[in-house]
Amino acid sequence: MALSGLEIFKLLPKTNCKECGLPTCLAFAMNLTSGKIELSSCPYISEEAKAKLAEAEQSPIRLVTIGVGDKALKLGNETVMFRHEKRFENPPGFAILIIDTMDDAEIDARLSRFQELQYERIGILLRPELIAIRNDSGDAQKYADLVNKVKQNSDANIILMSSNHDILSASLKVCADRKPLIYAATPDNFEQVAGLAIQYSCPVTAKASGLDDLAELTTKLTEAGVKDIILDSGSRTLRRAFEDQIFIRRAAISKNFRPLCFPTVVLPCEMTNDPMMEVLMASVFVAKYGGIIVLSDFQGETLFPLLLQRMDIYNDPQKPFMAPEGIYEIGEPDQNSPVLLTSSWALTYFDLSLAIEASDIPAFLCVERIENETDVMCWCHYCLRSTQRGKLDSKSTSRFIKECRIKDRVNHRKLVIPGRTAQFKAELEQTLPEWEIIVGPVESALIAGFLPGFAEDLKNLSET
User: What is the pTM of this model?
Assistant: First the structure.
């Protein structure tokens, strides 16, 4: 948002009605400028103020949508150069390349990998979003048949890659309902491709050799009525493409240079023949402003790290990751396995689960939900104040332990809590009288020395 908190405050009714959920209009303005609340939360703002704020809210980089429905990919709408300034809004999409000269077995294998390479991490589904279909054969019917095959056998958003107007037209008749990205409009064919984009209401890629030519091309496309544009600067070396991404982002955000105020596409698949170098290049563009990243192929060992990198960079730095509340099985625990309690802060969950795995002792990890608190019930050295802060208390924890039904999965009644929360022990024993509360190590690094002996005690207890 271009306006400061005080500038927004001047446009508000200043009633301090609290109906937005905040104590004052100034607090509302400050939360609005940081993106923590929506303008619609104020019931008394004037239409004039709404219009001014809506204009100020307009993103320097246009929001472009590829696809339809829940799986549509949103790109752009970015407002900052660096994540610590606010947050990055829409993560880049990963595309696998399929060429119409490939044999059926290879095409089927790539379609299968696109559908199968999905991963769940702390309740978030990580997966690629796009299939780029390139026409090398020059055969319009063959290309249209491949596009139809991709459409019928995947839920992917589609990129149609051809410079031939007739081939693009034939393929759009097959998949226009998916709102594919047309790749690409060039200085030589932009009039025909612009006509297709308008006819089928699809976004289009503007491709030129260099940023000056690219700015000229986007100007012609917008004058022709095309609004949803993706930029391809034409660079096919890592250094040049990297520089172009930064220049485009800076021109849009810092200079408000409208011809370059669009998301971008980069093609590591055309920059190298080395699969590992291609992945390294892709990781650069995840960090530095790539909107769509087209890879020659997907493999689990290379795609998964890219998905994790994207998740980490495009999370909200003001809202830490949280693991879903519930019982997590570390290893293959049985009825005599240890039960440990922790908070849903993702860093704590990962730290503790890895420590349990390293101890080679299967265990149940009970993760209790917390509300955006970062210093609660932690086993890691990042939260030295965890014994004094946070919203977990004996009442909420006893509720969670009862509702998760962990007692039905173990024979014992021993619950391990972090060592820093020792003062929590007496309170919890009063609300969970059937459980013995065990104060564990102060840090997860000490779990490997604690769990083997504790697990042996539980085994001996079950035998008596």
Answer: 0.79
